[in-house]
Amino acid sequence: MAVFLGAIKKLAKRNKDFRRELATNAHSQLVLMCLEPDEDIGEEVHEEVDQAFVVVKGKGEAVLDGVRRPLRKGALLIVPAGTRHNLVNVGDQRLRLYTLYAPPQHPPGTVHATRAEALAAEAERAATTDA
């Protein structure tokens, strides 16, 4: 079990990695994210994973089943399992946030400095899972 007690806003504001896992338990996971201007997380659907996003800095947009909604500092977005979603940084500075997955989505210790690195790791993981 990974207990997390920390200044999450401060950690999220300092994070420069696209994805950085902070704590993983049997039923949940805490991950920091940072999107560069005009970057997005990539459209995805987690069939059995609920996800919550909290924006701590920047300006973004959530695309939920094709519907766009603004995301600003302090926003909480809860995405139920099965919902097609994407987050886009529409500002001119980094969009910093943290996300909670339930159940966990990424291996403990995951750090992806860039979106390209995250995509490559996910493709590799899918290839080994399908093999």
TrEMBL record:
Q: Which Pfam families match?
A: Cupin_2
Which CDD domains does this chain map to? cupin_Bh2720-like (cd02223)
Q: Which InterPro entries match?
A: Cupin_2, Flavonoid_dioxygenase-like, RmlC-like_jellyroll, RmlC_Cupin_sf
Q: Please list the residue ranges annotated as the Cupin type-2 domain.
A: 32-100
The record's PANTHER family line, in alphabetical order, gives:
LIGAND BINDING DOMAIN PROTEIN, PUTATIVE (AFU_ORTHOLOGUE AFUA_6G14370)-RELATED, QUERCETIN 2,3-DIOXYGENASE-RELATED
Its protein name is Cupin domain-containing protein
